[in-house]
Each structure stands twice: as C-alpha cells, then as structure tokens.
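Ticket #4471: structure output looks truncated?

Reporter: J.K.
Steps to reproduce: submitted the chain below (102 residues) through the standard prediction queue, then opened the result file.
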Amino acid sequence: MKPTRPLWRYRLAIASRSLAATAGGYALAAAATAAAATALALAMPRVEAVLTATMLSWLVYAGAAGWAFYARTAWSAWAGVLVPALVLAACVLGPRWWGGAA
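Returned output as attached by the reporter:
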C-alpha cells in the first residue's frame, strides 16, 4: 500500500507539531501566567496572585499541547499557539512600553 504523501513530509509535520506543543505551549503558558498574575494582583495579594496564575498555567500548557495535535495542519497548530501568546504578551508589556503603570 502506497502512502498518500511522502514519509519525510509526515515526519516533518509531526516534528513541527511537537515543537509547537513544547516551545509554543511554553510561550503561551508563560504569557498567560504573566497576564493572569497582573490581573489577579488587583484583587488579591501579589504572592497569591502569582501562585494562582502559575497553577492555572498548567491547564493552559496542557490545552496548548492538545491543540498542537488537534489542529488540522501544522501551520494552524503554530498559529493557534503563538497568536494568543503574542496577544497576551502585548497586554502585559503594552502599558510598560507606553509609559503606563508598571
């Protein structure tokens, strides 16, 4: 039985998804942690906000890893992980860049 596409393309797609799951998931989890800690610091003490955000980041990381293999293509896997990470990072770093509150 002949494979539908070359074996090297399949392996490259799996490697790309694995990298999206690990590196992209880490970036998304880190950005989500920073955004959640910043938002939660308004309602609770800073230490508790950071601990809560860190614990919630494990759910984000697991979701990102799942998404990387659930997506239809490797490109959409990368987009689904990096676009939210960049948006969250901009939300966290935006006020610092524009001279707002730290």
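Triage note (M.O.): checked the attachment and the full token line is present. Helices lie at 7-40, 46-70, 74-97.
Status: closed, working as intended.
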